[in-house]
UniProtKB/TrEMBL annotation:
<dbReference type="InterPro" id="IPR036188">
    <property type="entry name" value="FAD/NAD-bd_sf"/>
</dbReference>
<keyword id="KW-0274">FAD</keyword>
<keyword id="KW-0560">Oxidoreductase</keyword>
<feature type="domain" description="FAD-binding">
    <location>
        <begin position="15"/>
        <end position="211"/>
    </location>
</feature>
<dbReference type="GO" id="GO:0071949">
    <property type="term" value="F:FAD binding"/>
</dbReference>
<dbReference type="GO" id="GO:0016709">
    <property type="term" value="F:oxidoreductase activity, acting on paired donors, with incorporation or reduction of molecular oxygen, NAD(P)H as one donor, and incorporation of one atom of oxygen"/>
</dbReference>
<dbReference type="InterPro" id="IPR002938">
    <property type="entry name" value="FAD-bd"/>
</dbReference>
<dbReference type="Pfam" id="PF01494">
    <property type="entry name" value="FAD_binding_3"/>
</dbReference>
<keyword id="KW-0285">Flavoprotein</keyword>
<dbReference type="InterPro" id="IPR050641">
    <property type="entry name" value="RIFMO-like"/>
</dbReference>
<protein>
    <recommendedName>
        <fullName>FAD-binding domain-containing protein</fullName>
    </recommendedName>
</protein>
Amino acid sequence: MRYQGGLLVVQTQYYCLAADGARSFMRNTLNIGWEGTKPNMTWAVLDCWIDSTFPVTREIVTLQVDGESRMAWIPRERGMQRFYVLLDGEITQEKTEASIRRHMVPHPVEFTHVEWFSKFEALISSLIKERVAFTFLHPTASGPFILAGDAAHVHSVNGGKGMNTGLSDAFNLIWRLHFLLQYLSLPSSTAHAILSSYDIERRKTAEGVIDIAAKLVRMGVHYSDVESPLVHQSEHGVWKAGHRAPDLWLAHPATGDAVRLYQKLTYGRYFLVLVGAPRNQVQVLEEQFATLIRLTGLKALGVGARRRDEDAVEEEVHTDAYGCS
């Protein structure tokens, strides 16, 4: 709805996406409740540069005092460090710095510059919520109201996955909506399966993020065990349906030039990879869909972001692969 020339103009849309944060107006208006808990914790957040003899690592570190893990240390860009500190009572920068020093004894710590300080209650509420909306799709599993990001799930700051998870929600959802709006004549059962799988896949991930945030470990995203109707349970070599595509070096048979698989991917376009398919099946596919796809034979050189052509070991992966876009 919008006002135009003093008149209220009502426009009808196919879907309404609620990505309006943890205090979502849309979620509250639709009376969509939460599943989960509200642990009574308030965290201080400090982005800073430090001078310390404590060994610096590129991994997330948690430190304990008196058997309690009340501090998480996450390295950031430009040499900056982020600290999450669980405090009681009044939350101040001075108390936060004192707690960090206490956790890092016997190593001295000097805070050479503080970029940002806040407390998590300022971001969501006075209590950290570890909760997931009981549905991401309302009033049916096909919408038309859809929740994403903090409107659908909130969790502890530990792990720093809030924005990443919200962006993943958006990417997971938008291709579905684009496809459904492009092909409005799809059978209702097909459209239902495509959209309802958003709730299935992203709910499983949100629950995992909440668990991971509590445990302070890194997240590996996959959809192979969530029973999504869009994921066929199969695998071939390093390829597993529902998992992130492996980071492979590939070679074009005509030129021999090495290229990473992820350099071939273009967001917003479909990219089909056929792995282990008999050559006669690939030929039939190319003949049937010649007007729709561009099929290219690719030779796998090896696995890993830093794999060099001369260091590649072909036995590590299955080399019969084809990509089409």
